[in-house]
Amino acid sequence: MADLTLRQVKKSYGSVHILHGIDLDIKSGEFIVFVGPSGCGKSTLLRTIAGLEEITSGELNIAGERVNDVPPSKRGIAMVFQSYALYPHMTVYDNMAFGMKIAKEDKAEIDRRVKQAAEILQLTKYLDRLPRAMSGGQRQRVAIGRAIVRNPKVFLFDEPLSNLDAALRVATRIEIAKLKESMPDTTMIYVTHDQVEAMTLADRIVVLKDGHIEQVGTPMDLYKKPGNLFVAQFIGSPAMNILPATIVTAGKTTVVDHVDGRKATVPIASQGAAKGAAISFGVRPEDLFVANGKDYLFEGKVDYVEQLGEVQLVYIDIGRGDQPLVAKLPGNVEVKRGSTLKLNANAEDLHIFDGAGRSFAHADAVAEAA
């Protein structure tokens, strides 16, 4: 069991600054996922925790011990890399046991731990196989098993599923979720660019951008109450529709004027913003539905339809020129290209952001917590 704390952790390569003062508390037993676009610093942050990258400044503590200058082998961590990095001439058993053999641990203890890990990962019948005789998903499980046998305080996963095809990613993701359930006291930190992995695996998600933490929260916190425009559009697929708008009425609820002078009442306080202030107005594609009657938020011509079976993505020209509105509608709703469509959304599913891109709703949540 291990808590992790990072205080003002910075990482630079000469004059190039990668991490800009990371502050983060990770509780023992949590499954934390780092997400963000390429180059945001998520893998670098993971590698500083592992000790593979030296911290330029700041402090990292694992289980109450400052580990800035502690070598990786002494930190009580085990890392699973994007590459399986298995020894091709060794059996699955020997690959999993190798680290313990190097540490000269007792043979009986090695055997016990390897067989226990193999049982957890459903690898028992493959222990005598060579890696080349296994699928990509099975090899990744061997790499995970090699980490498990070390009985670490903290597991680190660096995009472990990115080399797998779509079906294997789903299957292995489920295996990792089951692994966490079987090891509830073990802290796990997982890096991915795939928000589906983040949403399905994480206890909490850390969203990074340009070496800064944008927001930390549970998957549904980030989905329902994104702290800013970046998080709003990064979490969720397709991305949230964002439109320019103006405040018409400020107060405990906010009335906004958006495309073609249409108004929407949003049950979120305007946080001191005045009438006439330019803001951003957001709604997720899956929260839109076909309007019946005169009450609707958007109207436009259907430009394109992506039929996915259960659902369809409908791209609608609402006259704003730069990009269409995207709606995620049930697959059995008849939508024809070129037809006019009216769409609505429930008031509680609407979002507003100030001129700097900060969510008004997130400010409400912070005020309530205080």
Q: Topology, please?
A:
Blueprint: E1 4-13, E2 16-26, E3 31-35, H1 42-50, E4 57-62, E5 65-66, E6 77-80, H2 92-102, H3 107-120, H4 136-148, E7 154-158, H5 166-182, E8 187-191, H6 195-201, E9 204-209, E10 212-217, H7 219-224, H8 229-234, E11 241-249, E12 254-257, E13 263-266, E14 278-283, E15 289-290, E16 298-307, E17 311-317, E18 325-330, E19 340-344, E20 350-353, H9 360-369
Parallel strand pairs: 3-8, 3-9, 6-7, 7-8
Antiparallel strand pairs: 1-2, 1-4, 4-5, 9-10, 11-12, 11-14, 12-13, 14-20, 15-19, 16-17, 16-19, 17-18
What can be said about this structure in brief?
The chain is an alpha+beta fold and 370 residues long.
Order of helices and strands: EEEHEEEHHHEHEHEEHHEEEEEEEEEEH
Secondary-structure content class: alpha+beta
Count the beta strands: 20
Shape: globular
**What kind of sheet is the major sheet?**
6 strands, mixed
Strand line-up across the major sheet:
6-7-8-3-9-10
Give the rounded overall mean pLDDT. Answer: 89
Whole-number count of domains: 2
> What is the rounded Rg?
24 Å
CATH class category label of the largest domain? Alpha Beta
**Tally of helical runs:** 9
Low-pLDDT residue intervals, each spanning 5 or more residues: 365-370
What amount of the residues lies in strands? 25-35%
The CATH superfamily name of the largest domain is P-loop containing nucleotide triphosphate hydrolases
Distance between the termini: 30 Å
Share of helical residues: 25-40%
Q: Might you state the CATH topology name of the largest domain?
A: Rossmann fold
**CATH architecture title of the largest domain:** 3-Layer(aba) Sandwich
